[in-house]
Write a structure and sequence with these properties.
The protein is α+β, with helices and mostly antiparallel strands and 77 residues long. It has one domain. The protein has 2 helices and 3 strands; from the N terminus they run αβαββ. The protein starts with 7 loop residues before the first helix and ends with a strand.
């Protein structure tokens, strides 16, 4: 979710309403870099803070350890 925090909800709403097919899924990703000390964006927590409940959340680790990606999946109504 690479938009200003004040526009995140608007972006999610627009994507779910205008881009994702009915019954489809929107995949939100946040990337990090353990080597640079950057944690992945907390996309699941962000989605919930805007009133959306992810149907699935995953986090993957880099080969050297540390979270590298966080994924949250939202389903359209």
């Amino acid at each position: 979710m690479y938009v200003p925090a004040t526009r995140e909800r608007e972006l999610i709403e627009r994507l779910l309403a205008e881009v994702v097919a009915s019954g489809g899924r929107l995949i939100l990703c946040g990337y990090g870099s353990p080597r640079s000390g950057l944690a992945p964006g907390p996309v699941g927590a962000k989605a919930r803070s805007h009133g959306f409940e992810p149907e699935l959340e995953l986090q993957a680790e880099a080969p050297e350890g540390g979270a590298i990606v966080e994924i949250a999946v939202l389903r359209t109504p």
